[in-house]
Amino acid sequence: MSQDPHGPLRPSGERHLLVADDDPSTRQFLAGALAAHGYIVALAQDGTEALEMAQSRRFDALLLDCRMPRAGAMEVLKALRADPAAASNAATALATSAEVPAPLRASLLSAGFAGVIEKPCRVASLVDALAATLGLDDGTRILDDAAGLTATGDPHTMQALRQLLRAELVDLSGALGSLVDDPAELVERLHRLRSACGFCGAARLGAQAKVLQGHVRETRIVVPDALARFRAELDATLAALSATG
């Protein structure tokens, strides 16, 4: 059965996160903030506990403090990736630290972290990082005709703008590879894309562009997980636009 071009890219579902930090107040804050955004959160108080939990339970993402007793974020992720039998071997990993000098950020990203969040965490930055790498999971439609009609005023204008958007997406798809090395230009392209998506009712791609834009501004680089997630949304939107003529 073919996918409804107006429907969500994937069904909504629970997202399980592991938050590991040796500071009780930080654990409490992160658990509450993430739960308020619909995530199911498990807590670990040091690196060894975090590794044991990630080995035995499947989490969608890991939020690991860089300086924990017994093992920091880098050591936990290295051990987890080296264990193919670990339940969360392939989970997205984000690092947190009270201080994030440029060399540390570069080392963490090179080690496979999808983002680095400076503490005290801004909830918006954390949510953007998770959505940019895990993807949106709220049932937002790929194409929302009602929103497009509200923005454009009539179906003919909406359809014409959607054809322009389709051409823009084809061009952007081909340019993504080079934009990996130019975060500032990617942020600018995403800004323009969000406007076009708003006029066309391309709600899901517009939302993914927003969180990727925030994530790139925060990390100052384009991480592979986030770019792959955005490309998946871009491809789904292109397919939906083609299906509607």
Summed up:
The protein has 245 residues and is of the alpha/beta class. Helices cover 58% and strands 11% of the residues. The chain has helices spanning 24-36, 47-56, 73-81, 102-110, 123-134, 145-152, 155-179, 183-200, 203-219, 224-243, and strands at residues 15-20, 39-44, 61-65, 92-97, 115-118.
Structure notes:
- This protein has helices at residues 24-36, 47-56, 73-81, 102-110, 123-134, 145-152, 155-179, 183-200, 203-219, 224-243, and strands at 15-20, 39-44, 61-65, 92-97, 115-118.
- With 245 residues, the chain is of the alpha/beta class.
- The protein has a 5-stranded parallel sheet, sandwiched between helices.
- Helix 5 (123-134) packs across helix 9 and helix 9 (203-219) runs antiparallel to helix 10.
- It is elongated and about 60 Å long.
- The model is unreliable at 1-12 (pLDDT under 50).
Number of strands: 5
Mean pLDDT: 88
Number of helices: 10
Structural class: alpha/beta
**Distance between termini?**
19 Å
Radius of gyration: 19 Å
Helix content: 55-70%
Number of separate structural domains: 2
CATH class of the largest domain: Alpha Beta
Spans of at least 5 consecutive residues whose pLDDT stays below 50 are: 1-12
Give the neighbour order of strands across the main sheet: 2-1-3-4-5
- Mass-distribution shape: elongated
CATH architecture of the largest domain: 3-Layer(aba) Sandwich
CATH topology title of the largest domain: Rossmann fold
Q: What fraction of the residues are assigned to beta strands by DSSP?
A: 5-15%
N-to-C order of helices and strands: EHEHEHEHEHHHHHH
Largest sheet: 5 strands, parallel
CATH superfamily of the largest domain: Response regulator
